[in-house]
């Protein structure tokens, strides 16, 4: 990391983990706009995964699948632990959800709370232990 992670990032992590995906998007987008590399792409990857989950909540299967893939591709550039985040675990959880969504297809996204759907395990951002 070229600089200390700002407090707003951790606010975004809390929003992400509590299912406030649109609020997380707003928080991380403000950081992303002002950031320089390598943080810029890191924020963008997490932001895209958050927006994917927002799309999923709104039954936008296509948007969820596209952004899960794009966010994961951006985060793959980072070490397993970056900025206090367990990047490997976030990638693993996001990839598992992407695979599940691809297997069940757009017509199987049922109504109700996505977070309560037993088939769909939503990713969480975990702190690294390094």
UniProtKB/TrEMBL annotation:
InterPro entries tied to this protein: DUF309, TTHA0068_sf
- Do you know which Pfam families this protein is assigned to? DUF309
Chain segments annotated as transmembrane: none
Coiled coil (residue ranges): none
Q: Which domain of life is it from?
A: Bacteria
Gene3D superfamilies per the UniProt record, alphabetical: TTHA0068-like
SUPFAM superfamilies, sorted = TTHA0068-like
Protein name from the UniProt record: DUF309 domain-containing protein
Native source species: Nostoc punctiforme (strain ATCC 29133 / PCC 73102)
